[in-house]
Amino acid sequence: MSIELRLSETLYKDFITSDPASATVRDADALPTCAVYEDANDVAIVAPVVTKRVGLTGNYRVPIVCTFANGFRVGHSYNVIVSATVNTYVSKAAIETIMIVPARKLGLVVADGGNTSTTFKTNLTEATNDWWAKAFLLFIDNASLVGQIHKIIAYDGATKFVTTDAFTAAPAASDAFQLINF
To answer: Hey, is 8 helix, strand or coil?
Structure first.
């Protein structure tokens, strides 16, 4: 099991406990615990709180909040381990592996007389200058630009213009792009 998530996303993962002696679903003796470990690190980066699903025997849920503050980093993988005691038997299981991937955002080119192959207006909404600086801009639907990618050199939060190295042509109005932010 493996899933790709971006920073700031939350994964809700369910798991079920059972009695090893009778092989039947059964509630744990006490609330199970959870820990998340990064790559080959032996120290948990976060211990999410497990919740019992009301009215469902042996069914539990755990939210894994993948934020920088919780120790998650782009390009790293994490193992989610749960521990439970059922009928005095202690068991552990890896219920998920998470890979944190770069954030992606979609945008469109906006018609403007000042658009060139290196500077063009977008429909991005961030108001902070250079918010998208160092992100990669990948065109995804213009026949002549599709697949071309360049790092954003500058972003003007007031005008919504991005500046990049030169694409092979100026993008047209409504050309779609994807931003990949590492």
So the answer is: coil
